[in-house]
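User: Before I run my own analysis I want an independent prediction to cross-check against. Here's the chain; please return only the structure tokens and, at the end, one sentence I can use as a sanity check.
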Amino acid sequence: MNRDLMDGCRRPIKRGMKRPVCTRTGSRAGFTLIEIIIVLAVISILAGAMVPNVVHQVDHRREEATREEMQAIYRAIVGDPRTGTGGYLEDMGRLPPSLTDLVEQGSQPGYSLQLAGVGMGWNGPYLSGGFSDESWLTDAWGHPYTYDPTTGEVTSAGRDGATGTADDLVLPESPITTSRPLAVVVEADSALAPGNAVTLDGDTAQVFAYYADAGSQASMELVWSDHAFRTPAGSELPIGVHAIRVVGLDGGAKGDYSGREAVTTTLSTAAAVYLPATGSSGSGGSSGE
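Assistant: Structure tokens:
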């Protein structure tokens, strides 16, 4: 605006004089009500479109974090082939009664070496690194995990916090196999023709399997059936390393193998054990069935 005109707008008006018309040429001071309403409407529309996507991304990250934690719990129970560890199941011969048994020994028998150097007993904690407090007992939504000690299955209730609904996460998807049968074939240096190997049977040998039972060593005599010494009908051995002890018997016409003994270990469902001549050291191996 012209300075003279501005001065005229500010100068007192004398009687009989007309006040100059003063106009403002600067920018407007604000928005109109309609403009504000339009802006708010646009913001609301954008926010409404973004919120579901943000919620979905947050839930996706929580689901991934929960699955990773559940995988760690699963490996603590059954072992991790990447590290060669057998987990709680192998050491104790059973599933943990509760998830806290993976990190707290309590009254559980401690780990020690038994027959044939097979270790048994609690050798935890089976979870480490970020599992020192109890936060791992809840999923990423803050809901406690549900654990079934008869199947080993861990369940997250998911976003809605209710089990039995579509967003549940369950690992493993089927019950953990905790036991299996075992068959052992026993060969020996012949008592009748030394230097030759013969296959022994129930008349010439006894076979015992040693395994972890709630962390303590237990044994089971295998029975001769179908050309092998097998776990009795209706019985199985816990998953894990087993010690096998073979004792020779007086087989009468088949030869006397009493006094002979061999000890070996097996991880599979079938094993071959060699019973050496008296005074020799025993040996054995295992093979998958």
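Sanity check: Confidence is low (pLDDT under 50) at residues 281-289.
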